[in-house]
Design goal:
Elements: E1 2-5, E2 8-12, E3 38-41, H1 69-87
Length: about 90
């Protein structure tokens, strides 16, 4: 069993320890793009590995949220409506 992150080996298990049970593996790696590949390969012919609970965390989330273009359009439409309502308001 091998695990590759962006084409580089982060784990390479060549033998299985019988009766070892659940073993946790954890790696700190950095993505090279927003679509960095995580790949698992297993070529064992007479045995197999259980692979469970894969988790990838984004550790570099921005504290400033950028609005989507559609949100900006709705905001602009709302502001224009308020301006028009004030301009044409009947006293």
């Amino acid at each position: 069993m091998e695990a590759l992150w962006d084409g580089s080996h982060v784990l390479n298990l060549t033998t299985w320890i019988s009766g070892a049970g659940f073993i946790l593996y954890s790696f700190d790696v950095t993505a090279s793009s927003s679509a960095t590949p995580l790949q698992f390969n297993d070529r064992a012919r007479h045995s197999f590995f259980y692979l469970d609970d894969i988790q990838v965390d984004d550790l570099h989330t921005s504290s400033v949220l950028t609005p989507e273009p559609a949100s900006l359009v709705l905001l602009a439409a709302g502001l224009l409506s308020l301006i028009a309502a004030k301009k044409y308001a009947i006293d």
